[in-house]
Amino acid sequence: MQFSIKALSPETAKTGCVVLGVYASRELSPSAGRVDKAARGALRKALPDLPGRAGATLLLRGLPGVAAERVLLVGLGERKEFAESPFRDAVRGAAAALRELGAKDAAFYLVDLKVGSRPVAWNVRHAVLGLREAFYRFDQLKTQKKGSPPALAAVTLPVSSSPALQGALSEAIATAEGAALARTLGNLPPNICTPAYLAAEAGKIARQFKLGLQVLEKGDMEKLGMGALLAVARASHQPPKLIVLRYSGAAKGKKPRAPLLALVGKGITFDTGGISLKPAGEMDEMKYDMSGAASVLGAIHALAAMKAPVNVVGVIPACENMPGGAAAKPGDVVTTLSGQTVEILNTDAEGRLILCDALTYAARFEPEAVIDIATLTGACVIALGHVATGLFANDDKLAAGIREAADDAWDRVWQMPLWEDYQEQLRSNFADMANIGGRPGGSITAACFLARFTRKQRWAHLDIAGTAWKGGREKGSTGRPVPLLVRYALKHAGKK
Ligand code: BES
Ligand code: MN
Ligand code: ZN
């Protein structure tokens, strides 16, 4: 899908489809008004057939006075309620209609709408991301690829070009690409997407963009003393990997040195629960338990592709959580890389065990801030559902920056408390701490566990258990939170 920014008048645009917004109560957007005038009111006449809700569509053909063969009207909802959400719904609705249509090219006039106080660059970014997301397919494992219509090859974003808009466009294209990569890694089955597969994927990215790559093997982890990570990996026939991928895009030799951001992603390529075995129903969904890792690879891919002036190091602990004769048992006590000991009371609370060692390891790069991303707790899904990612942080400025980036990327988060009061739930009679804190505040105690390994760092934790993938009929990975991570990394480097 090629995108270009070019001012065009909607009535004379030579394109397969002109996409126009219409508010509820039959109020035309300015571009729709122009087309209606050129078509002598034909558009207004058709409006009763367009439902008012944002994202509803109505296709018109062969309008008099209009150069394009087709005009796609897209509902925007009530004008006074028009904001980010209805805009995104309209983009999604339009994308679905364009896909159905099999349109080869389109002029996408939704980008010239006023969305709250957002600049046009915001519209450009979200139009590109929304369109790319809607045209994403994962059919590489189907032998019959029927029902996949030809992709929309060219989209014109009809606003007058400027360096700022061109920058927004390349950021959005790279972000969409990174999110698609994360989605594909998430969707790949666990017999293909193993720890070794993730390491190979990191290798591909490293070669493509000339990034630094280091993969620690089991022996290296043993030498370092990553007792928690090794305990989780122990029963699997797939060897664990600790992947370190480094992108240094900020100008070198400049003082002060550009800040380094560390992204630590949970890479459990399959979570059976281990000896604390999960129930059979929907266990297949635990292939998504490497979505944090996938989002780190996707975000670094995006930043490298757009040549962003930022420094990022990705740290990915990757392994399977399996039962077996060698598996960690409830009651086992392990020594983490930090030196602290942990009593494993539930082997299904494995994410925090691999992350604690990875977070300790990440400190050696002396990052200015570290963010971990993990499908960490079912409790977070209960608390926030599938809309908001759970945000926890030990630094208010970092949290505020992430919240702002999340709103901007419309990849939203909701901050949860990380108060010391919760720490006592992790008390253990036999070790420095237990790896579970009981059912109350389950996502908070998981974060509190991680906090014990990041006391000397500016740290935030994103629990993406509810947002990284969808279950049910629409089962599949979402690519979240790649848009948030990319936006935050740019912000963190002071780019925007
Ligand atoms: N990967 C799961 C968390 C998860 C559950 C993500 C459901 C998405 C949907 C994690 O490893 C896990 O099993 N967590 C346990 C922790 C509990 C044992 C304290 C949970 O949430 O049940
Ligand atoms: Mn688990
Ligand atoms: Zn897990």
Give me the secondary-structure topology.
Elements: E1 2-5, E2 17-23, E3 27-28, H1 30-38, H2 42-46, E4 57-61, E5 70-75, H3 84-101, E6 105-108, H4 120-134, E7 154-157, H5 163-187, H6 195-209, E8 212-216, H7 218-224, H8 227-233, E9 241-248, E10 260-265, E11 267-271, H9 291-305, E12 311-321, E13 333-335, E14 341-343, H10 351-362, E15 369-374, H11 378-384, E16 389-393, H12 396-408, E17 413-415, E18 433-434, H13 442-451, E19 459-463, E20 469-470, E21 476-477, H14 482-492
Parallel strand pairs: 1-7, 2-5, 2-6, 6-7, 10-12, 10-15, 11-12, 14-18, 15-19, 16-17
Antiparallel strand pairs: 2-3, 4-5, 8-9, 9-12, 13-14, 16-19, 20-21
Helix pairs in contact: 3-4, 4-5, 5-9, 6-9, 8-10, 9-14, 10-13, 12-14
Give an overview in words.
There is one protein chain. It is built from 14 helices and 21 strands. With 496 residues, the chain is of the alpha/beta class. The strands form 4 sheets. Strands 8, 9, 10, 11, 12, 15, 16, 17 and 19 form a 9-stranded mixed beta sheet that branches. Strands 1, 2, 3, 4, 5, 6 and 7 form a 7-stranded mixed beta sheet that branches. α9 links the parallel β11 and β12. α6 runs parallel beside α9, α8 runs antiparallel to α10 and α12 crosses α14. The two termini are 26 Å apart. The model has no long low-confidence stretch (mean pLDDT 96). The chain binds ligand BES, manganese (II) ion (MN) and zinc ion (ZN). Zinc ion binds next to β11. Manganese (II) ion binds next to loops.
Give the tags.
binds ligand BES, alpha/beta, 9-stranded mixed β-sheet, binds zinc ion, 14 helices, elongated, binds manganese (II) ion
